[in-house]
Design a protein that fits this description.
5 strands; globular; 97 residues; 5-stranded mixed beta sheet; alpha+beta
């Protein structure tokens, strides 16, 4: 794990690297697995099932993907723990400029 990855691991996506925020037990998160944002938590609290199923394209400035969008999707049929404190995983599926 390189230095950038160590800074991101367990942090909420969009938070500053020096922010100790590792999430709240009152929110719902998707753990990002693989790719440039591996280890981050994406706050999906309040998302509808359809929104979760669609996955996300997240901007990253980390090398080797600066300025691109990293695509993350849930695995079909993988359970989402509903409600506050729940979680699931979004897996890296590629990137686009």
């Amino acid at each position: 794990m390189n230095g950038d990855e160590q800074l991101l691991n367990g942090r909420v996506q969009g938070a500053q690297h020096d922010d100790p925020n590792t999430g709240s037990p009152h929110r719902t998160y998707a753990e990002l697995v693989g790719g440039p944002l591996d280890g981050l938590l994406l706050d999906i609290h309040g998302w509808r099932t359809e929104e979760v199923d669609e996955g996300v394209a997240l901007t990253t400035d980390l090398p080797p993907w600066p300025g691109s969008r990293a695509l993350y999707n849930p695995h079909p049929g993988e359970p989402l723990e509903p409600g506050p404190g729940g979680s699931c995983c979004f897996y890296y599926s590629g990137d686009k400029p």
